[in-house]
Structures are given as structure tokens and as C-alpha cells.
Amino acid sequence: MGKGMPETAVHLRIFGKVQNVWFRGWLVEMADGAGLRGWVRNRSDGSVEALLIGPNSLVQEVAGHCRSGPPAAVVGSVRATPSSDDGSTGFRLRSSL
Q1: CA distance 39 to 20
Q2: Over the stretch 17-27, which tens digit does the pLDDT of each residue have?
Q3: 42 is catalytic
Q4: Is 56 among the catalytic positions?
Q5: In a domain, 1, yes or no
């Protein structure tokens, strides 16, 4: 990621068969590989929640991949909303909420 590149943050909620299918680990690999910052976690309602932070084009690319997810996932919908940079360093797996 180049210095001075404008960054954006997007909050995602991913619904469908997205837990117990390696979605979080897959997203950590995708986001980390793209050089994004943020986090991902399971929610008690069965969804996956994530915050992607980085250059807009890379954030949009990774968010787009979340519409299909890893092979065992069945994504019903993805809700993406603009968010704020929370100061995350790297891309991490957070505890479920």
C-alpha cells in the first residue's frame, strides 16, 4: 500500500450459511493478502461482521469477494455501509459477539 493513498473504511454484515464454513479465516487471508486493515467476527444471529480499511479499490474488491465467500459458504446477502477507521493495525480475527 502506497504512502499518501487515500483510505476508506467499510463495515460489512454477511448473511446466509457463513458460519462453520471457514468464512472468517478465508476473509483474514483475503484482506491480509490485499494489505487491508480491520477485523472479522461471528455474530450471535448467524451472520459474519467485518470492517475493511484501506485503499478504496482494494476494499471494494475484497468486499465484492464476500458476496460469494469460500467454497462451503452460501451467502444470502451482504450489507455494506461506510464506516470510520478504528485504528486497526493488520487484519485480525475478533471474538464472536
Answers
A1: 17
A2: 999 999 999 99
A3: yes
A4: no
A5: no
Does some domain include residue 97? no
Per the structure, the complete domain to which residue 51 belongs is given by 7-87
Spatial distance between the Cα atoms of 62 and 3, rounded to a whole number of angstroms:
20
CATH number for the domain harbouring residue 34: 3.30.70.100
* Overall number of domains in the chain: 1
**Is the pTM here over 0.85, yes or no?**
yes
Cell matching residue 65:
469477494
CA gap 21, 25 in Å, rounded: 9
Q: Is residue 96 part of a domain?
A: no
Q: Which of 20, 37, 41, 42 is catalytic?
A: 42
Q: Where are the alpha helices (DSSP H) in 1-97?
A: 23-33, 56-65
**Marked catalytic residue, from 24, 41, 79, 92:** 24
Quick check: is 60 in a domain?
A: yes
CA 73 – CA 1 distance, rounded (Å): 29
Give the other-Cβ count within 10 Å of 72's Cβ. 12
